[in-house]
Amino acid sequence: MRTLKNTYFFAVIAALTLVFCLGGQAFAQSGSIGVVNIDKALLDSKKGKTANDKFKAKQESLLKDLETKAKALEKKVADFDKQAPALAKDAFEKKQQELIKERDDFLNLRQKANEEIEKLYNDSMKPLLDKAMSSAAQIGQDRGLMMIVDVQQAGVVYYQNSIDLTADVSKAIDK
User: Fold this and answer.
1) I want to staple 170 with a disulfide (CB 3.0 to 4.6 A). Which of 23, 25, 41, 132 is the partner?
2) Which sign, positive or negative, has the C-alpha torsion 94, 95, 98, 99?
């Protein structure tokens, strides 16, 4: 009984070894893997540069406005801190409540600005990102690749330049 189990076990191991060995050779012969840096492809394309420049200009404008409002609020708080010891209790509490409301308004404004920045990015870059992904997939199919890995997302440490499709994807975005 024990020898039958041992024989069965070794037969399974031999079969798995054969499958892995032959499967590895088939993998090496039938296709390969390509890599792409989608972010670089987007920023290297003309359309990507244009969209990114427009996005950055709008982002900077929003952030500059926020910075101006933050500095104004900081100045009001600093002025309040200087005046606080001389204020009567009622005046102190009233001014404190005003500053708390202004702070809350600023925090809401900042949240809305962050949401607007995210929407601007998605509106300007998402269509190009979709095109980059579909272009990478089409290039992979045309070249008979089994898989394409985004080097930014997958944490790829090393690859040969010969499998890098980034420049081809960047060109495809502009078509």
Assistant:
1) 41
2) negative
Supply 18's token pair: 């054969």
Q: What is the pLDDT of residues 9-37, one digit of tens each?
A: 444 454 444 444 444 444 433 458 899 99
Please tell me the pTM assigned to this model.
0.65
CB atoms within 10 A of CB 169: 29
Residue 149 φ/ψ, nearest 5 degrees: -110, 135
Question: In the Cβ-directed half-sphere of 24, how many Cα atoms lie within 13 Å?
Answer: 5
- The DSSP 8-state label assigned to residue 34 in this structure reads E
With vertex at residue 39, the alpha carbon angle to CA 34 and CA 42, rounded to the nearest 5 degrees, is: 100
Cα(48)–Cα(60) distance, integer angstroms: 18
